[in-house]
Specification:
flat; mainly alpha
Length: 118
Amino acid sequence: MNIITWLLLILVVLLGTIANLSLKYGLHISSPTKGASASIRNLLLSRYFLIWFICYTFMTILWLYVLRIIPLSQAFPVLGLMYALVPIASHCLLKEEVRFSQWLGISVIITGVVLVVN
């Protein structure tokens, strides 16, 4: 296992985070006042849905590559970093509130990933 493979695994996490944020933002800006079908149509035709699709496509391809090299018992827990990064990014970019208990959980997740990967 080399550093490039681990960086690709981190890229998988980052792509998943970007994908989730873009989908949430796309849902947020689609116009729910015009009805559910118009809202979904606006989402599917938005650039944020396209970003979500591209990120998940590349994320899946990279994940398949990484799994060929890194043991699943080490690679899979790293995906848990998305559970930490999504709330942090949502707080910073989407101005969502993150409570103290969530910050505590985020720190536990990060600590757990570090312990499992070492």
